[in-house]
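[[Local backbone shapes]]
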Amino acid sequence: MVFSEIPLEEKQVALNKLHSIKTELAVRNWFPGNSGNLSLRVGGFSPDQFHFAVSASGTDKPVNTSEEFLFADTAGYPCETTRLKPCKETPIHAKIYRMTGCGAIFHVHTVYNSLLSEYYGDQGYVPAQGIEMIKELGIWELNTEIQIPVLPNYADIPSIAKLIPGTFKPEIPGILLRNHGIFAWGRDAFEAKHHLEAFEFIFEVVYRGLLLPPRR
């Protein structure tokens, strides 16, 4: 489906959803400075024919304006006439959409995900085991251990996107950039937010667990 064929109502619904979620996450201080970004697929779920609404570059997330999002194509380039520029991580969003067929991707910077991604950066993943919230990612095995991928945080964003296939784990709906933040995704905006909240809970538990004294 070409962008001009997507109903205006569908585009507006996507923008309204992103605005609402942005406001909710900003209250939690998950967008310090002008960090973080959100995106939502529109116009179908074909891996090679889709568009998505994505945060514009440099927006102040706690502040509501009429120029917070724009629409991009499968490569992450604007697909409409606009003076807005896609956020710098848009190529990562585009890559994840093409690989997973997901419907929404949310990227936030928090203290816990930044600290753990750096602490476990050389290992290439953050381990988490036996945490109840892992079930919220759709993984139900008792006392299971998961490995949340950590990618290097290069200044050249397309170079990061190229690394995603090599570390991608289909059962884990998220990846970390080292000392940067997490990208969490889902079938729709509700599930993506659900997964993001689960990851952030897991990160806090893992971090606080590292601070506990050894059991005698």
Notes: The two ends are 62 Å apart (CA to CA). Residues 3-211 form a domain with the L-fuculose-1-phosphate Aldolase fold (CATH 3.40.225.10).
